[in-house]
Amino acid sequence: MEQNSVTDSIAQVDATTTHALTPPMYAPSVVAPSTEPNPAPRIICPPVSLLPAVWETELRDLGLLEEFGDVPSGLRDGFRIGAAGPVTKTFIPNNHGSARSNPHVIREHICTELATGRYCGPFDKDTLEQIIGPFSAAPLGVVDKPSTPGKFRIIQDFSYPRTYPSSSLNSQINSSNFPCTWGFFPDVLKVLLDAPPGTKAATFDVDAAYRQMPIHTDDLPHIIVHWDNQCYVDFRVPFGAGSSNGIFARCGDSMALMYARRGFGHILKWVDDFLFIQFPPNSSGGVNPEIFSSVDAIYKFADRLGWPWKRSKTAPFDSVFTYLGFLWDISARRVSIPCKKREKYHARIQSWLSSPKVTLRDTQTLIGSLVHCALVVPEGRPKLAGLIAFSASFSHAYSQRFIRKSPDQRALESVQWWLRTLQIKGVGCQIQSPPPPARLEIFTDASTSHGLGVIIGSEWGAWGLKDGWKKHGRDIGWAEVIAVELAVIWLIQIGHHNTSITINCDNQGVVYAWKASRSRNSQQNGAIERIMAQCMAHDIWLSLEYINTNLNPADRPSRGKEPVGQYTRAWHPLDIPSHLNDFISHNILP
Q1: What is the rounded average pLDDT for all residues in the chain?
Q2: Are 174 and 92 within one domain?
Q3: Are 72 and 215 part of one and the same domain?
Q4: CATH number of the CATH domain containing 453
Q5: Is the pLDDT of residue 44 over 90?
Q6: How many beta carbons lie within 10 A of that of residue 247, not counting itself?
Q7: What percent of the chain has pLDDT over 70?
Q8: Region 354-379: what's the mean pLDDT?
Q9: Is pLDDT of 42 > 90?
Q10: Does residue 352 sit within a domain?
Q11: Percent helix / strand / coil, the chain, rounded to 5
């Protein structure tokens, strides 16, 4: 069993960098793993399977090197993880209870990582400090793999400690610096709406996606693994860091674009799951006959780059495919919830209903599942409002995350409707276009120095942030989501419903959180849920699009200034919702 130990916390990040006694080197092979302490003051970095020189050539040939020039260098030298600076004092916290109660899972994981060369060690604390200087370990945890019952994923809690202000790695990482292209539900719809007869699709999965990505030597001290009083150096992108998905996305996004430019069809991706949709050769936009419906052609291109498809998970080309947890039938032009997913969500509802009192986390998990289902069960969107309102009644403070409450009648009715609906075999909908778009340009922004700005058409509004708003997880991302929430409320008040709306926002993290229907931040999550409830109740299909701050006319109102251009101020365009009264006020400009 692990020996718990705690040393001093991380000090300020502006101290002098400490250098290793022996510089890291690349080794052509990895020795058999050992769990005996390693006294040798050296670190051997394993080679990566992806081939930097080939990537650089391919990106240059396809005109993508300017956009993805960091990828070949990242594969050679390691990607920066986004820390604010070097670790200046060693920090070894206790591992979480889920890890301590599953020591065999942790030990098996460590042995696997040592065998692949992705871990180096073990070292005792003093020896490792001699090699790399002060370092920080994150608490280990164990979670079930939903897709593989009986299997577990090891996570490192890089948000620990959850103090304010925090010294955690994730508190240093600006996630907006690590964007990712996502293939969302509307993106699949858009392709399939134009798909001619004979269209085929296939799905591919990247083998150990994050663990293919090397981390820069200077950042290794931030991601040390500590178990049973021994330390291990991790050379690859870990699970749990706020930048992990964005680092993989640099390779994943460029890979998708390279496939597209080489004529492999429409390529969409969700983290490490790739979807290839190919129109038949004799149609407009059709692919080359040698490529059409050929899994081997996709493998051949990947092999040149060292890209590791997990071939056992490949679903070959067909007119029916599974992506984003839905079953898509191109010929029938229908999308539905697969049987196993339907049964899983049905069981989740039954578990929630059977509990006299539930937690915020249980409720938000259920909301996330049902919001997902509502993509193909549009009549169920307004039915979520009661459950979302119940979720909003909880305190979102981390210290109160275990509070339990009895669901109210409205929430129970919402969930019972979904329970009945998910008993229907093949429940889903036809693939069809969203409602017509509103012909309005809409912009939102937030500034910590002043407040919120919204522009709808030719009118603008502004609100100030009250003193003390920035607590309990409310940050600039939360403020940006609140600006979107105010824009939606304003739109509804002026009569918009049964329409498609696009809001331009200059915070990429918020844009992606909306598209994913969730955020890591519980305060942002609560606001996203409220926006969803409003949109579902009024049949508004809302999209958020990223706009550069320099092009966002709502930037000035958010800073207490009038926008530039032909805009008229809408005095008090809406009443501030009661749940926001403590945080924002009507803005009075000079």
Answers
A1: 89
A2: yes
A3: yes
A4: 3.30.420.10
A5: no
A6: 24
A7: 92
A8: 92
A9: no
A10: yes
A11: 35, 20, 45
314 and 360 in a single domain? The answer is no
pLDDT for 209-247, tens place per residue? Answer: 999 999 999 999 999 999 999 999 999 999 999 999 999
Whether 437 is covered by a domain: the verdict is no
Structurally, the chain folds into a number of domains equal to 4
Quick one: 367 and 410 in the same domain?
yes
Full strand arrangement of the beta sheet holding 326-329: 320-323, 326-329, 334-336, 428-430
Please tell me whether residues 519 and 571 are part of one structural domain: yes
d(CA 398, CA 384): 24
Q: Of 79, 76, 509, 71, nearest to 254 (Cα)?
A: 71
| Residue 45 host element (H or E) | strand 44-45
**Torsion angle (degrees, nearest 10) of CA 514, 515, 518, 522:** -30
- d(CA 333, CA 376) in angstroms, rounded, equals 12
Q: What is the pLDDT at residue 41?
A: 54
Question: Rounded to 5 degrees, what are φ and ψ at 436?
Answer: -60, 150
Determine which helix (DSSP H) or strand (DSSP E) holds 502, and give its type and residue range: strand 499-505
Q: Please tell me whether residue 473 adopts helix, strand or coil conformation.
A: coil
pLDDT tier at 46, thresholds 50, 70, 90? confident
**What domain range includes position 408?**
339-430
**183: helix, strand or coil:** coil
Find, among 367, 374, 361, 336, the residue nearest to 349 by Cα: 367
Render pLDDT for 445-471 as a digit per residue (tens, 0 to 9).
Answer: 999 989 999 999 999 999 999 999 998
Q: Is residue 8 included in any domain, yes or no?
A: no
Question: Are 194 and 290 in contact, with CB atoms under 8 Å apart?
Answer: no
- 59 within domain boundaries: yes
Strand segments, DSSP code E, in 355-476 are 358-359, 404-405, 428-430, 442-446, 451-456, 459-465
Collapsing DSSP to helix, strand or coil, 443 comes out as strand
Q: Give the confidence band of 86 by pLDDT, cuts at 50, 70, 90.
A: very high
Q: Where are the alpha helices (DSSP H) in 117-216?
A: 125-132, 169-172, 185-193
In a shared domain, residues 196 and 313: yes
Q: Using CA atoms, how far apart are residues 69 and 54, in angstroms rounded to an integer?
A: 13
Write the DSSP assignment of 306-330 as a string of letters: T--B-GGG-EEEESEEEETTEEEET
274 in the same domain as 238 = no
Rounded Cα–Cα distance for residues 30 and 44 (Å):
9
Strands 44-45 and 25-26: parallel
User: Comparing 533 with 270, which gets the higher pLDDT?
Assistant: 270
Write down which residue in 330, 348, 370 finishes a domain: 330
| CB-based contacts of 564, cutoff 8 Å, min separation 6 | 553, 556
